């Protein structure tokens, strides 16, 4: 194969790889508009599954917080939620809080899902997509581990 054609093929493969890499979200956290590791989590609040209010940081007070963003339309979320229930049971007596943050735009979707798939998880409903705007999750499900000092430890 002539040298010029080999160079064009290599150049095309590089850009195809780069395009797929960036499209897949693996291009690093710099393309992420929300919170990333080492960011300080700003105060937020949300409606709990039982109708109460969760307020961060007041309701955490030095504990580790695990936020899992999920939606009723997400097949991967349906698979992951039972695993989250196991985590809650395992760390029940530790300084640890897990909240499953529902991102459905209408509460009706979450309620319909929970009627079909009852679960024993602390739920937070993201009314108005405020948490989605703050955290900026890319895709569903996604989790944020927040350390006791209020910084994102892992996304």
User: How much helix is in the residues?
Assistant: 25-40%
Largest sheet: 7 strands, mixed
Q: Count up the helices.
A: 4
Low-pLDDT parts are 6-32
The CATH architecture name of the largest domain reads: 3-Layer(aba) Sandwich
Query: Nearest-angstrom radius of gyration?
Result: 20 Å
Strand content: 15-25%
Task: Give the neighbour order of strands across the main sheet.
Answer: 2-1-5-4-3-6-7
Q: What order do the SSEs take from the amino end to the carboxyl end, as H and E?
A: HEEEHEHEHEE
CATH topology of the largest domain: Glutaredoxin
User: Which oligomeric state applies?
Assistant: single chain
CATH top level class name of the largest domain: Alpha Beta
Give the name of the CATH superfamily of the largest domain.
Answer: Glutaredoxin
As for the number of domains, it is 2
Secondary-structure-derived class: alpha/beta
Query: For the terminal residues, how far apart are their CA atoms?
Result: 45 Å
**Total number of beta strands:** 7
> Mean pLDDT, as a whole number?
82
- What is the 3D form? globular
């Amino acid at each position: 194969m002539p040298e010029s054609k080999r160079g064009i093929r290599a150049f095309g493969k590089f850009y195809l790889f780069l395009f797929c890499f960036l499209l897949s979200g693996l291009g690093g956290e710099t393309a992420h508009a929300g919170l990333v590791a080492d960011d300080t989590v700003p105060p937020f609040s949300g409606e709990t599954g039982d109708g109460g209010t969760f307020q961060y940081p007041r309701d955490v007070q030095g504990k580790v917080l695990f936020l899992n963003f999920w939606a009723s339309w997400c097949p991967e979320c349906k698979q992951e939620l039972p695993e989250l229930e196991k985590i809650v049971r395992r760390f029940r007596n530790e300084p640890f809080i897990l909240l499953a943050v529902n991102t459905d735009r209408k509460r009706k979707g979450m309620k319909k899902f929970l009627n079909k798939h009852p679960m024993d998880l602390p739920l937070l409903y993201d009314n108005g997509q405020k948490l989605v705007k703050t955290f900026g999750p890319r895709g569903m499900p996604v989790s944020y581990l927040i350390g006791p000092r209020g910084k994102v430890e892992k996304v």
